[in-house]
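Quick question: what would this complex look like in 3D?
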Amino acid sequence: MNFSGLIHNFGPLTVTGLAQGAIIALFALGYTLVYGVLRLINFAHSEVFLLGTYASIIVWGFFGLDQNSPTPGMFAVIGLIILGMVAAVVASGVTAIGVELIAYRPLRRRNAPKLAFLITAIGASLAISETVGVITGRNIRGVPRLIRQTDVVVIGNTHITNLQILIVVLALVMMFLLDRFINRSRLGRGIRAVAQNPDSAALMGVNQGRVISLVFLLGGLMAGIAAVMYNLKIGVTRFDAGFLLGIEAFTAAVLGGIGNLRGALLGGLLLGVLQNYGAGLFGTEWLHAVSFVLLVVILLFRPTGLLGESLGRARA
Amino acid sequence: MRQVLARAIGGVALVGLLAGTAACNSDSGSGGDSADGNCGFKIAYFGALTGPAANLGVNIEQGYELAIKQYNDKKGSDCIQVAKFDSQGDPGVAPGVARNLVSDTKILGIVGPPFSGESEAADPIFEEAGIPTVTPAATRVSLSANNWKTFHRAVANDDAQGPAAGNYIKDVLKAEKVFVADDQSAYGAGLADVVKQTLGSSVVGTDKTEGDGKQTDFSATVQKVIASGATAMFYGGYYQNGGLIRKQLTSAGWKGTLVGGDGMKDPGFTKAAGNSAAIGTVVTCPCSPPEKAGGSFVKDYQAEWNTAAGTYSDVAFDAANIFLQGIDQGNTTIEKMNDYLGSVNYQGIANTYKFTATGELDPSLIKVWAFKFDDSGDAVADQEIKTS
Amino acid sequence: MSSTAATPGKNGRRLNGNLRGWFARQPVWVRIVGVLAVIALAYLLPYTAEIPLIGPQIVTEGIDWPSALFNMSYYVLLALGLNVVVGYAGLLDLGYVGFFAVGAYTVALLTSPDSRLGTEWPWLAAVPFAIAVAMISGLILGWPTLRLRGDYLAIVTLGFAEIIRIVAQSTETLRGDRGFTDIPHPPGQQTDGSALFGVRDATPYYWLGLTVIILVVLGVRNLDRSRVGRSWLAIREDEEAAEIMGVRTIKYKLWAFAIGACIGGLGGVMFAGQQGFMNSGTFVLQFSILVLAGVVMGGSGNIPGAILGGALISYIPDRLRGIQDPIFHTDLFGFRFAIFGAVIILIMIFRPQGLIPSRRRAMELKDREKEAAPS
């Protein structure tokens, strides 16, 4: 145990943890949305994210950019990031809806047991990530350096870079927009209605199929944004990148209270930061162990996560 | 009714899939039974082709396959067949695949297994079957202490490379503060431990990461490196993590030198790090620069596989060629092949190969070189380092 | 619900349902002979390749057939154990590989010369200890966590398995990736004096695995038909109702966890005994997820279903090794997990109740299908 190291590096570990946590939080929203409405762990959500990372890299590749190209000018960068996000969001959204149509909808028609959904989700996840693995030769794909990280704020040994600020701000903005959408819009009301009680929602004239597609789409959109942030921060993707981060995102969703949007944000940020503290205290190899131990402890005292579940009852 | 129909279609599709796959089983075993006395045999590759470590295995397989293709082109026929066995790099999978390999009596030798773990699990089976193996990459020291007669190692083990890397940091970089980390693999941790011993008190901090493909965010490690004030970092591990760590170190403003072992000597390193961040990174390798040996391996490899040769591709190429030379000399049984390996003295592109009684490379022939990544992303020879 | 059970509708006349019904109506001696015949055939499986025409289509190409059978045997064992937890008691466990690891590591620690304990016991002596340790670990995990419901339990068990993997990888005592070498094989000699459980031939390991499976099936089947089994059923269907009716839910849930852990540990023991070497690389999360897929695919809550599912998750990828696709003539083995994923989806879509469902489950499902809201 290395307490002095943790205390000395407390600031930097917090900052890097928040940036990682923001990405996890965006990713976790997909799990939480689907769970809130369908009570289903959408295992294939990790692959929704994965295809987002590849889509943005491919689009940047059209402009002749790879990991070795110099950083373009400011306006070009903004344009490229937006383009990358559009590509990632489209790819992730299409994947999410595709998975819903192929792997879940046929089961829902038959009112199949919940476990069956979980297994088709696992099947879809395997099929997609392994296909990507074969196509890419299981090699890594480098990301162009669109943002040259520079310190914006320096407090003691804590450096906050432009990229870290971008990631956290963007995550908060997306979160805010999503929250508004769910709580204020007509479609959002439909989502909340189905989450609360699918049968009465159907009786009240809510088109359940459309609502479910919408939920998958929203989760896909968030995953697409998260994918671009991940690309910019980590700088490389690979066929199993989704699976690895997916476990963390799922953990974050449960930590905050699965089915609860704000819980996902809280869980993601908390997980990112606590993992870093754990790594500082015990060594990086214990990073994930620390987060799981924390999860178990928190669930023992708050069995439905920090903020509790329920998408339907989330108040404005 | 619709459901019944759908179910029927599904059933038919499944049966069709199975029948289709079954139909193509039959043609996988045919081969060139050429009249030439030394033809019709196989040299096998045993190692990961899929699974999380597949990228490392594929490098080796392609080096091995290139050697056999060139040999067959020279002969003008499909004289020696390629036989690939995918262990997934997993000691749990390896025995079943190894038992399958030994049932093929045409196999005269095996290039592999690349990893130490799967070697421990599969080599006893090869030993019992008497098929000689030449591993291009498994560097765990204890492998040669098992009294396996068929075991041969075409690279220096961790005990030879570790001190060299340590010496380089001490004597060439003259670093007084060094951070040492590893990926907890048998290879990476073994190497890092030897480096720590060599460097002694100049090690100011250590850390451990997860293995390749299991971790991508190294911000905690990066933070520790910066906080330790180290001017050099040694990472015992493979190129993917190495490249990511280099990239994230550079992003965080650390300007020291990253040093790694041969597991990082791969174009994938710059793919992960980006050329500009990779510049100046040093990797040690118990091999000589290929341009020293002459020949056109680097070019040929690029032409054949449309990608640059990676970690151990050259050693695998040599290992396959050692077997092919043996076949040329008429060693067409596994016993003769094993005897031949005991006395071989082969000048390859990465090294000169001569095995001791335990299957290790002759210590007098081991050379460790340092390579440095330049601005085009290639690891170019820097200098030879003393190993003790 | 009861009306469906009394008068099976036309749709209920599925092939296996009828076959099973017919079988259940036969006199005892016919049933015993039938079961014995199936067992005898199972023992003869290593010689499948000798059957003309059909045999070569069944055996695996890229992996030695007896080894593939042995692999299937420990997957089946794991599926049987997980079936107790998921199928009977209805507890979603995503970290079952943890118990497999505990069993295997206990054997390694007690027997391998690399171990710090320095005991170097023979394999057989380590077996009861390994099973006991696995069972205790099941209780330790279960005691605090079984209060959690459904998906929360799932993520906690998943975390538990990851913690075990990380501990195995990162502590000196468990040797991480370096692993344990020279784990002894099971005892026994052939008539010519050579070891019965050698390294070259996996057939004896398969037979051993099969024997263990038969014993486990007998045990689990009896439990399922006892008071314990009925309590599990009650908990699975409605935990609150069960609690109110006087079923001590925590106790029986712990039972399910401990028994599942025991069987999982046994799988690890078999694995270590065949392997001779093991390290932390085997106990990855995907392993648990695969076994769970096997149980549900085969038919959760039903022993023959779990056996079939467990065998399939090992067999399908192994069978796809060494096969070339008919169009591009590249090796299909790279795609085997992708194909496998697609097969899982297909099976679940066409048979959401599993390939061989428990009869009760199949009827429930039919009930639910009728309730399905048109969408």
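Answer marked as accepted. The first helix of chain C runs from residue 2 to 6.
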